[in-house]
Amino acid sequence: MLIISILALATNTFAQNAEQVFKAAVDKLKAYNNIEIAFDYRMINTAAGIDELMTGTGHLQGDSYKLNIAGQEMICDGSTLWTYMPDSQEVMVSSVDSEDGGSPLSIINSYYDNINAKFLNGNDMSRMSIEVTPKEKDENFNRLVVIIGTKTMELKEVHLFDNNDSEFVYSITKFITNQILPDNFFIFNEEDYPDAEIIDMR
Fold first, then answer.
1. Contact 131, 145 (CB under 8 A)
2. From CA 52, how far away is CA 42, in angstroms rounded?
3. Burial code of 149-167, b = ≥16 C-beta within 10 A, e = fewer?
4. 30 has which bridge partners?
5. Among the four residues 52, 64, 123, 163, which has the most C-beta atoms within 10 Å?
6. Span 7-35, mean pLDDT?
7. 3-state SS of the chain?
8. Tens of pLDDT along 37-50?
9. Residue 149 pairs with which residues in a beta bridge?
10. Any residues with CB less than 8 A from the CB of 26 and at least 6 apart, and which?
11. What confidence tens digit (pLDDT) does each residue in 86-115 have?
12. Which residues are CB-contacts of 171 (< 8 A; sequence separation ≥ 6)?
């Protein structure tokens, strides 16, 4: 019984440390005024035979963001999302509470409270792998796995697993913080897209 009690205590301490490390990394992200990133994006669904890889760039600031990926430009001011598709010269306008409208930072932050966290096997001295699952069922995602740099406490990779057995992987290749951005940086300006058709789906 003594050995079992010691093992249980050690397991609880390990899980608690994983949660503390994850929250420390999220706190550090939220402390930046803004973030510029470049990343590799991969979508995997083995059952459907999907394994797509593409690159992207973007700026993040709270609930606002600007992303360029797969030939599309997405601009969000926190309440409205504009998606510009140059091939069709169209701009789709939607509310941020619509599908895929949330900021990458807000998605990560949504896992901050009421979670279970644990270290995964295969950690090395330079990287920590932590699996985070919500204690209450999430309608979109069932778990999150983050790779965190041990020295910097910054995210290196984010793996999102949805309820349709798909995995979305973001591998960060560039990370710059606290730049001076124009006040209207995260607002869509129609004058910059004179030939585009605006389609309001709100």
1. yes
2. 5
3. eeeeeebbbbbbbeeeebb
4. none
5. 64
6. 75
7. CHHHHHHHHHHHHHHHHHHHHHHHHHHHHHHCCCEEEEEEEEEEECCCCEEEEEEEEEEEECCEEEEEECCEEEEECCCEEEEEECCCCEEEEEECCCCCCCCHHHHHHCCCCCEEEEECCCCCCCEEEEEEEECCCCCCEEEEEEEEECCCCCEEEEEEEECCCCEEEEEEEEEEECCCCCCCCCCCCHHHCCCCEEEECC
8. 999 999 999 999 99
9. 127
10. 108, 109, 112
11. 999 999 999 987 444 467 777 788 888 889
12. 39, 40, 41, 42, 156, 157
What tokens does 142 get?
């069932």
Kindly state the tokens that stand for 141. 């995602």
Q: How confident is the model at residue 20 (pLDDT cuts 50, 70, 90)?
A: very high
Indicate the length of the chain as a whole number: 202
Those residues whose C-beta lies under 8 Å from the C-beta of residue 111, and which sit 6 or more positions away, are 22, 132, 134, 144
- Provide the pairing of β-strand 141-149 with 155-162: antiparallel
Beta bridge partners of 49: none
Q: Which residues pair with 65 in a beta bridge?
A: 60, 76
